[in-house]
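To the team - nicotinamide-adenine-dinucleotide complex, inputs and output below.
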Amino acid sequence: MRILVIGAGSIGGEIIRECERLDTVEEFYILDHHPNAVERISRGMKKARPIKDFDRAVPGVDLVIEAASQEAVQRYGKRALENGADLMLMSVGALVDHDFREELFGTARSNGGRIYIPTGALCGLDAVLSASLVHVEEVTLETRKPPESLMDSVFVKEGKMDLAGLKTEKVIFQGPASQAVKLFPKNVNVAAALSLAGVGFERTKVRVICDPSCRSNVHTILLSGESGELKGVSINVPFPDNPRTSYLAALSAVSALRNICGHVWYGV
Ligand SMILES: NC(=O)c1ccc[n+]([C@@H]2O[C@H](COP(=O)([O-])OP(=O)(O)OC[C@H]3O[C@@H](n4cnc5c(N)ncnc54)[C@H](O)[C@@H]3O)[C@@H](O)[C@H]2O)c1
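Output:
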């Protein structure tokens, strides 16, 4: 199997190390804006091939893994599928745009390609998928974060609330996922993945809690419907040098890659 990884940052780094370890991966290409990042991560690896030109490398690639940015999904996603590769996406927030999403999904359909969306920083996305096959009453994503993690949100920048002086936890936003992804773009990946797996951006509710005593990024999924009730909580350790990204999100990409390369799938 040949793989092309876009992004050699926190998540990409874990994926690249796994590509080097996996016997089923013959060789893999790495593309990043910053050649230094690629050089640092791939030094000494036998199967890694740093590249600068996506279009030259992509013919003959079986799987393109995006672990870079929403912009990278827009720039390379369709081209990967048109070249016959499957596509794994981490910057799921790019799929919030309805027209872009339909175009990408349509390209996968017409080229016989697959788009893989790992569970990321959430837990319980598998159960949400199953429960959504029958009637769903309500789906809520509750995100609890310390004030520092919310400071650069559009919500705070527009001056809707001063979080710095907060002494106790406070619900700072309640509304549909469609509105939450605009006000809290850093939360966009989890809200997008949940909305797409479940009942869509309008019916998925988001509650954001700012909690000064919280040291992790905590995501709780609550679902009620015909199949019963679900509650999935992930209390996520952030990457030390990149607190925006949860370690679990990177591990979910590695686990998805193992599934794609393997013969037995758990939790399908
Ligand atoms: N699905 C989830 O649950 C989840 C969780 C955390 C992060 N993410 C998303 O995954 C992506 C990667 O996260 P990360 O923490 O590894 O980021 P990071 O900042 O550590 O690394 C991203 C790397 O991608 C490179 N890059 C960005 N755009 C590029 C482009 N167009 N072409 C080439 N290289 C490009 C950057 O130079 C950087 O080295 C982000 O978009 C992030 O929002 C998803």
